[in-house]
Write a structure and sequence with these properties.
The chain is mainly beta. The chain has two domains: 66 residues, SH3 type barrels (Roll), CATH 2.30.30; 73 residues, Nucleic acid-binding proteins (OB fold (Dihydrolipoamide Acetyltransferase, E2P)). The chain contains one helix and eleven strands; from the N terminus they run βββββββββαββ. Strand 10 and strand 11 form a beta hairpin. This is Eukaryotic translation initiation factor 5A. It comes from Salvia divinorum (Maria pastora). Pfam families: eIF-5a (PF01287), IF5A-like_N (PF21485).
């Protein structure tokens, strides 16, 4: 071979990819898809017949899982779409700080202090009222593509 030394610089992170490819024709309602760089939940899929140029098209209507904005995309059914890795984790709520951040208890006993209260008014009042009443609350945190947000609340009884 050669005597030269090769240096490779990698700018990518070593973690798992934020998305994976999936054929557009196999994505169904209630599945996930990336539209305009945002992770979305599919609420409607319609497929057109093959046209003059030979590709059936899938028309996706989806809701951004973090901002609740409606997004649409049309993709040939044989092409690949990006699908986000979406995880949902439950944490016990320990504290709410004045600046809008929450302190959560993880499964291994550590605390997670980098999440803000949700922007959804109904969920926000439920969390604040339940915490003020001294209830044991468990919040569900949805994470996808490097973003995390509280998306649901469970009351597991008084302390």
């Amino acid at each position: 071979m050669s005597d030269e030394e090769h240096q490779f610089e990698s700018k990518a992170d070593a973690g798992a990819s934020k998305t994976y490819p999936q054929q557009a024709g196999t994505i169904r309602k209630n599945g996930y898809i990336v539209i305009k760089g945002r992770p979305c939940k599919v609420v409607e899929v319609s497929t057109s017949k093959t046209g003059k140029h030979g590709h059936a098209k899938c028309h996706f209507v989806a809701i951004d899982i973090f901002t609740s904005k409606k997004l649409e995309d049309i993709v040939p059914s044989s092409h690949n779409c990006d699908v986000p890795h979406v995880n949902r984790t439950d944490y016990q709520l320990i504290d709410i700080s004045e600046d809008g951040f929450v302190s959560l208890l993880t499964d291994n006993g550590n605390t997670k202090d980098d999440l803000r209260l949700p922007t959804d008014e109904a969920l926000l009042t439920q969390i604040k009222d339940g915490f003020a009443e001294g209830k044991d609350l468990v919040v569900s945190v949805m994470s996808a593509m490097g973003e995390e947000q509280i998306c649901a609340l469970k009351d597991i009884g008084p302390k």
